[in-house]
Amino acid sequence: MLVLPVCSDDARAAEQAAEAINGHFSVYVGRALNPRLLLNSRSQVLAEPLLEELGSLRLRHCKLLGVTEQDITTEGTNYVFGLAELGGRAAVLSTFRLRCSERGKFRERLLKEALHELGHTFGLVHCTRSCVMRFSADVHGVDAKPASFCSTCMSSLTKFQSLADRI
Ligand SMILES: [Zn+2]
Ligand SMILES: [Zn+2]
User: Fold this and answer.
1) Residues labelled catalytic
2) Which ligand is nearest to the CA of 83?
3) How far does the centroid of ligand 1 lie from the alpha carbon of residue 113, in Å?
4) pLDDT for position 161
5) Rounded to the nearest whole angstrom, what is the distance from the C-alpha of residue 59 to the centroid of ligand 2?
């Protein structure tokens, strides 16, 4: 079983993400991220420095998921739900645009986007099947895709995860 630290700038966001992901990965809530000083002109947090900060944490886990309540973006995009190092160690997820007055729906969106970003850290790329690795341009896209991997992505994930477990 993969133990996944969830690091956050907000304890509540981390708890929510941990609750949503639990059952898929073992989760512990780690120390806070510090996204200040990383804002662009639209007061959004740049996702790349968050990934770097996560990578610099002295944690032994093979994968790291950072969660922030702030709106995040990358150069040249309006916003992103999350960002991950493809085949790498760190992924970040923002709860900002996933929020919903329906708690169940919010949890489901968190789960889908956490699985999606973690899938990237295991080397999975975007998938066009009915799959959590399908790219979502907005929350409607998130709501429309399943919270699970298609059989092709799942078999790649299982292969990668058994490799990661041996590290
Ligand atoms: Zn993606
Ligand atoms: Zn797939």
Assistant:
1) 117
2) 1
3) 8
4) 64
5) 29
What's this model's pTM, rounded to 2 decimal places? 0.85
Residue ranges of the domains in the chain?
3-166
Burial 42-58 (b: 16+ CB within 10 A, else e): eebbbbeebbebbeeee
Q: Which two tokens stand for residue 149?
A: 């991997």
CATH number of 3-166: 3.40.390.10
- For residue 2, what pLDDT is reported? 52
Largest separation between any pair of C-alpha atoms in the chain: 43
Q: Is 161 exposed, middle or buried (0-12, 13-18, 19+ CB in 10 A)?
A: middle
Q: Which structure tokens are listed for 5?
A: 């630290």
Say how many Å lie between the CA of residue 128 and the centre of ligand 1: 12
Ligand nearest to the CA of 120: 1
